[in-house]
């Protein structure tokens, strides 16, 4: 008989917070963003995208792993937001997968939060 794998903790963890600023709504994500954690991200990002009056900023600078499920949520939030959408990618962990998928055609990729929040 082969023993089954039963972890005591989830394999992937993510923290999602929404911050409402005068000129933007910021969805900050920290941790691993994969098929296990994307639903928590989606539950915060899509309502924030639909309800933001101005710019939506998705801050992925503290994401250590970005899988296709997380990219799908970024793109869905980008499509749902009525205004401009900027994604803070920080490092190659998040920038490279978003560039490879062509996400930059739907959302604007930024290196820092300050850049994403800067006036046009």
List strands and helices in order, with pairings.
Blueprint: E1 14-20, E2 24-33, H1 38-51, E3 55-66, H2 68-80, E4 85-88, H3 92-100, E5 108-110, H4 113-117
Parallel strand pairs: 2-3, 3-4, 4-5
Antiparallel strand pairs: 1-2
Helix pairs in contact: 1-2
Protein name: Anti-sigma factor antagonist
Domain STAS: 14-120
Family: Belongs to the anti-sigma-factor antagonist family.
Query: Shape, please?
Result: globular
- For the residues shown, what is the average pLDDT? 88
CATH architecture: 2-Layer Sandwich
CATH domain class name: Alpha Beta
Strand content: 25-35%
Structural class: alpha/beta
Q: What distance lies between the first and last C-alpha atoms, to the nearest angstrom?
A: 62 Å
State the major sheet: 5 strands, mixed
Which H/E pattern describes the elements? Answer: EEHEHEHEH
> How many domains would you count in the coordinates?
1
CATH superfamily: STAS domain
**Numbering strands along the chain, what is their spatial order in the largest sheet?**
1-2-3-4-5
Q: Any idea of the CATH topology?
A: Transcription Regulator spoIIAA
Total helix count? 4
Q: Runs with pLDDT <50, length 5+?
A: none
Radius of gyration: 15 Å
Domain STAS: 14-120
Family: Belongs to the anti-sigma-factor antagonist family.
Pfam family, one: STAS
Organism: Amycolatopsis viridis
